[in-house]
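DOMAIN: structural biology
WANTED: fold as tokens
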Amino acid sequence: MDLQVCTATYLGGEGRDDAVGVGVLPDGRVLVAGNFAGRAPADDAHRVLLGDGPARVLVFAADGRALEREVVLPGTLSAAALAPTGEPLLGLTGEGFGTGVLHPDEEALRWRVEGAEAGRVAVEGETGRVVTLSGRTVRVYDTEGTEELVHEVERTSVSDVAIGGTPVRAFATGFQQVSGNLQQPFLHAIELDGERAWTGWDWSAAEAGDLSSDTRGEVIAFGADGMLYYGGESHGGVTTHFRMPDDRDAEAPIRRFDDASRSHNWNGAAPLGFVARLDPATGEMRAATLLAVRLSNGRGNAVRPRFLAAREDGTLLVGGASACCIPHAEHRRVAGQPAMPDYAGGAFIQVLRPELNERPVFTIFGNGVRADVVGVAARGPGMAVIHNHGLRDDEETVTGSLITHEAERPAPSPGPSEAHLVVFPGP
């Protein structure tokens, strides 16, 4: 249970450094987008100046050890996403930047709309379209940055968006408060004219019936296999996730293959994670599994999926937050170092085989620090995860360290936040 990594390194310098996304390019290089006020600039031969903000896109060699290119942008970034197929286009959004598209090897942005900042972004590499989410408003931009769609999702909370498929559609997920004590997930496929192509779950309290656990859609993303991936959570183990999205009476194809993929003996309303692969054309669920950990007494405990990336064969990389206790924690290593010596939970990744019935990787990258996964990436043989290492209560600068190996920066620099990158060969 020793995960071999190419590199595990801090990226920042003194001051605030926050990553907002990570990607693996078709040729294997790794890019990181974020705000790097503390990082020393690259030399002129490797630097492209498109602005003067802390926002930057860093492009590393495939093993993550050498910086090959740094693009400096105006403003700050709140989100970034790399197209999973087609052209390697990077969608970017943030305050002072707006929304725009960058090809990481070009000398200028493809387009940029100032004042159009949003909280989430995704890009489709075949046509170059971009989707953003601001509150409950979904916007789709064409290849020139012109709005093609402005769509209000009339639900309680919208958490994420995606774009892709044939024909190209926007997708949105979140939850609806359907009664005083019940939340239900939704997944909408939205045509570019604003009409819904299909809807997943989105049931009333009466339709949900005895499926009485609060359930939410949290994240959606297209994989390099062209499939749509969904991640959500239920607060308890009696959830609509157990049903097909288009049929309340049909059982979902959930792969339950060990105690960390089952919901028995659940610990009250602890969040039970769920991930699924769907056909974007129809919404049909092809495969799914549950994400759980267990306390020493066997009770199920919280796992919350927040980031998804699938490579060409459907191998799925999941990132998020886990409570105790990740199975076999005492035996898990990263580059020979104990992965979780203090607490068997934290900012985790899992790798799931294409059938979602086997989990060769389930780890964190050291604990005793306050860290969050803020992006995962998978393409070809390469996988990557990006963390932000932040402050504990009453701290003025980050303390402790995540695991490092073959590192550009083997320890965090003083400041309120530090980005941490791990690159590894996917199983």
In short: The radius of gyration is 20 Å. The chain has a mean pLDDT of 97. Helices lie at 205-208. Residues 84 and 224 are 5 Å apart (CA to CA).
